[in-house]
């Protein structure tokens, strides 16, 4: 049966819980297994067509999403004889302007991740050329289209999705019929690319991209999305209206498009987020809480005022049948929410802790706050850090990486000039300082924007962030001797991509755990893209936890996860909510403000946008409002935490 709104897509195979999904979605437990499955499909297509003496025409994407697919294709070539001799490829896009040798060029990306490792003939590879003169672009794009057609059209198009909902670089506003062309990149896209270019100001403002119409002409389309950061836009693309505002939604009109997701990227789909709206549910405590809080927000009533009719009219009738009447559910959820709130994040000494999120004893506690990079700690839990200190706990902070990749060259240059100045002040005594500064200046002067940093420059950038981190946590009352910079080597690659984790990353963490034997640990808990610094930091911490010498302290320690400020957690995810007063929120902003290297690169970039020190406060206020709307106490802001669960086990 075809839905008239989504002509062309056969939805007959959809299960009850997938009924709102207008693009076929396949969810894998993790990116690794999803990537292997997709590579298997591509290999099957190539083998089938080659077996029939035909060429396979692939449309390819760059970015972090397809890397696992390319790795597996390379392995299939190396170990299982998969040949690409009969494959022709067309890449989606390239930045403009862009030289193919640059670190961020998609030509270079494709060579490093795929083409240099397989037997594809060079003449079969097509990637938009970022070196053209402006006047040449139009005819070049028409020629690109002509070549796709001449090759027989795309058999399969691989896509990622940007947070703006773009496919290729078809930013919001791109029409369904758009063809290969030059496009201006959205601000959010440029922000997401900032790490690759060592600063937003270095990200090109334009790109050449296949159009939506070009993509939709592929016979088969696979869109890949991994990690929580993609969850919201995937929900819009898959379940929202077809719209130029989210160009991936046009895939709803394609007869053979498939979204391949990991569990985190699928987490906002109705079947996962609000399953009671589409199917019969097993009402776990958590799901009951989610439904009740959602209902209270949807009908705009405090939890204690929800009625049986509210539940039944909003798809949760069977919850009332199972656990009702409404008032019984309401009071249970109200109490649960109430018990998440605590002004004593380290536990309240001499108090009954039966219904408190953190146990009272031992008091004071040795607390360890782990941050993937400077600023994550104060953004996620700046108010709570202060409280822990004020309430007498011994608070330590450890930064896993320097975060230096997010410092711009002009910022580094300012500091190097300063160091040189110091060097000349103490000329005789400290030739070494001067020499180092001069080297860094030479490196920076010779460096073109967006090129890999020298060792000296990396050191400087790391130091800049260390200084900011110290200034920030000092404001929270933490002594310098309790701040550690672990500088895990997976991060220090000189390029935006990280290296795989190794023992050298785990060892410093294990040593820290063994030395400190903390009684309470806070770590960042949002699941980002595989390979991202935050995700890898989390994985490193998990592995290190399993390797400690004397694990006896682990059972005495409570492990908490804090959010990283960019997403408001749902109330059912929250297991500890720490109120933050107006003054505390001001002081938190002041602490975040110390991370000056993270401000917008130019005043015009800052126009109309809340700056980094303002965003965290806005999230804390929004969370407080949600507690308030549910009928709980009205606080200025709330910082939230959940208990640690393994990766993927949200
Ligand atoms: C890349 C491309 C983009 C990316 C998208 C997601 O060729 O066309 O649409 O697929 O920006 O990027 P990642 O995978 O890095 O999250």
Rounded to an integer, what's the Rg over CA atoms?
Answer: 26 Å
Low-confidence stretches: 1-8
Domain count: 3
Small-molecule binders here are: fructose -6-phosphate
**Could you give the order of strands across the largest sheet?**
1-10-9-6-2-3-5
CATH fold-level assignment of the largest domain: Rossmann fold
Give the strand content. Answer: 5-15%
CATH architecture of the largest domain: 3-Layer(aba) Sandwich
The number of helical elements comes to 21
CATH class label of the largest domain: Alpha Beta
What's the mean pLDDT score?
91
What distance lies between the first and last C-alpha atoms, to the nearest angstrom?
A: 35 Å
| SS content category | alpha/beta
Coarse shape: globular
What kind of sheet is the major sheet?
Answer: 7 strands, parallel
Walkthrough of the structure:
This protein has 3 domains: 23-271, Rossmann fold; 274-338, no CATH class; 366-407 and 449-649, 3-Layer(aba) Sandwich (Rossmann fold). It has helices spanning 31-51, 67-80, 106-113, 137-150, 187-193, 212-216, 231-239, 270-273, 285-298, 308-313, 317-323, 326-340, 376-390, 409-425, 431-446, 455-475, 503-516, 533-545, 582-593, 603-606, 612-629; strands at residues 24-28, 56-60, 87-91, 93-96, 125-126, 156-159, 181-184, 206-209, 220-225, 257-262, 366-371, 394-399, 483-485, 520-524, 558-562, 576-580, 637-643. Helix 13 links the parallel strand 11 and strand 12 (394-399). It has a 7-stranded parallel sheet with strand order 1-10-9-6-2-3-5, with helices on both faces. A 7-stranded mixed sheet has the order 13-12-11-14-15-17-16, with helices on both faces. It is α/β, with parallel strands linked by helices and 650 residues long. Helix content is 39%, strand content 13%. The chain is built from 21 helices and 17 strands. Helix 1 (31-51) crosses helix 2, helix 14 runs antiparallel to helix 15 and helix 17 (503-516) packs across helix 18 (533-545). The chain is globular. Bound molecules: fructose -6-phosphate. Residues 61-65, 92-93, 160-162, 166-169 line the site of fructose -6-phosphate.
């Amino acid at each position: 049966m075809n839905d008239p709104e989504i002509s062309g897509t056969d939805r007959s195979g959809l299960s009850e819980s997938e009924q709102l999904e207008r693009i076929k979605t396949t969810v894998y437990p993790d990116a690794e297994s999803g990537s292997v499955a997709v590579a298997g499909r591509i290999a099957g297509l190539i083998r089938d067509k080659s077996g029939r003496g035909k060429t396979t025409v692939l449309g390819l994407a760059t970015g972090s999403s397809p890397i696992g697919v390319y790795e597996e294709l390379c392995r299939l070539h190396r170990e299982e004889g998969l040949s690409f001799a009969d494959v022709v490829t067309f890449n989606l896009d390239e930045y403009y302007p862009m030289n193919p040798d640059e670190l961020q060029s998609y030509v270079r990306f494709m060579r490093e991740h795929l083409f240099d490792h397989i037997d594809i003939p060079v003449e079969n590879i097509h990637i938009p050329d970022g070196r053209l003169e402006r006047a040449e672009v139009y005819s070049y794009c028409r020629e690109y289209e002509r070549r796709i057609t001449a090759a027989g059209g795309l058999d399969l198009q691989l896509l990622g999705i940007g947070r703006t909902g773009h496919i290729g670089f078809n930013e919001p506003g791109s029409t369904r019929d758009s063809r290969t062309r030059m496009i201006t990149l959205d601000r959010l896209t440029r922000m997401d690319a900032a790490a690759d270019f060592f600063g937003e100001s270095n990200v090109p403002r334009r790109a050449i991209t296949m159009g939506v119409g070009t993509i939709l002409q592929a016979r088969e389309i696979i869109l890949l999305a991994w990690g929580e950061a993609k969850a919201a836009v995937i929900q819009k693309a898959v379940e929202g209206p077809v719209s130029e505002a989210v160009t991936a939604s046009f895939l709803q009109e394609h007869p053979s498009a498939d979204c391949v997701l990991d569990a985190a990227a699928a987490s906002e789909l109705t079947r996962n987020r609000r399953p009671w709206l589409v199917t019969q549910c097993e009402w776990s405590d958590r799901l009951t809480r989610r439904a009740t809080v959602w209902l209270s927000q949807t009908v705009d009533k405090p939890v204690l005022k929800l009625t049986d009719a509210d539940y039944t009219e909003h798809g949760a009738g069977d919850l009332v049948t199972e656990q009702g009447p409404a008032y019984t559910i309401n009071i249970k959820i109200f109490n649960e929410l109430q018990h998440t709130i605590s002004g004593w994040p380290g536990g309240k000494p001499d108090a009954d802790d039966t219904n408190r999120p953190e146990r009272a004893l031992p008091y004071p506690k040795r607390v360890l706050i782990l941050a993937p990079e400077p600023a994550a700690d104060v953004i996620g839990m700046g108010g709570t850090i202060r409280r822990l200190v004020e309430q007498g706990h011994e608070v330590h902070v450890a930064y896993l990486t320097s975060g230096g990749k997010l410092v711009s060259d002009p910022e580094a240059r300012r500091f190097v000039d300063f160091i040189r100045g110091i060097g000349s002040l103490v000329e005789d005594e400290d030739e070494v300082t001067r020499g180092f500064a001069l080297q860094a200046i030479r490196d920076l002067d010779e460096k073109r924007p967006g090129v890999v940093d020298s060792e000296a420059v990396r050191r400087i950038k790391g130091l800049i962030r260390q200084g900011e981190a110290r200034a920030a946590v000092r404001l929270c009352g933490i002594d310098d001797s309790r701040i550690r910079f672990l500088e895990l080597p997976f991060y220090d690659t000189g390029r935006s991509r990280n290296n795989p984790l190794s023992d050298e990353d785990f060892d410093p963490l294990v040593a820290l755990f063994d030395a400190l034997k903390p009684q309470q640990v806070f770590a960042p808990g949002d699941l980002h893209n595989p390979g991202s610094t935050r995700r890898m930091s989390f994985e490193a911490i998990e592995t290190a936890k399993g390797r400690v010498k004397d694990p006896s302290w682990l059972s005495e320690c409570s492990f908490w996860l804090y959010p990283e400020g960019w997403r408001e957690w749902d109330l059912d995810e929250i297991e500890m909510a720490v109120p933050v007063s107006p003054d505390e929120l001001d002081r938190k902003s002041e602490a975040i403000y110390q991370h000056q290297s993270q401000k917008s690169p130019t005043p015009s970039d800052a126009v109309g946008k809340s700056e980094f020190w303002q965003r965290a406060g806005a999230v804390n206020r929004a969370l407080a409002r949600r507690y308030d709307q549910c009928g709980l106490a009205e606080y200025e802001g709330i910082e939230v935490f959940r208990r640690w669960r393994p990766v993927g086990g949200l």
